[in-house]
Amino acid sequence: MAPDSVTTVIRRIHDLRFVVFGAYVADCIVATSHLPAWGVEYEADSVRMSPGGKALNQAVALARLGTHVTAVGTVGSDALGQDILSMLAREGRMSRAS
Predict the structure, then answer these.
(1) What is the number of other CB atoms lying within 10 angstroms of the CB of residue 26?
(2) Given this model, what pLDDT does residue 41 score?
(3) Which are the contacts of 38, defined by CB distance < 8 A and separation ≥ 6?
(4) CA angle 32–33–35, rounded 5-degree value
(5) Could you tell me the residue ranges of all domains in the chain?
(6) Would strands 25-31 and 17-21 be described as parallel, antiparallel, or unpaired?
(7) Which end of the chain is more exposed for a tag (fewer CB within 10 A), N or C?
(8) What Å distances lie between residue 93 and 20, 26, 75, CA to CA?
(9) Residue 37 pairs with which residues in a beta bridge?
């Protein structure tokens, strides 16, 4: 893609508005020394949790591109839910409905 085309696409993206409906959950990321294979047991090198889920990841990616995004979904009242709300607050303006 030519540089002028990329600039045009970016300008068009900034003019768009998105609404993302879906699950706002925690992703569990496991690191191992080898790719897992069926029937083979591996010990995890590390495990970490991060706000995620398909809808949340898409909403954040769109916001980072500079688009206007409205994320609609439910978030739990537990510690993971609070992490998700904190991350959304850091990413941009956030309003909460009960």
Answers:
(1) 19
(2) 87
(3) none
(4) 75
(5) 3-25+51-91
(6) unpaired
(7) C
(8) 15, 21, 17
(9) none
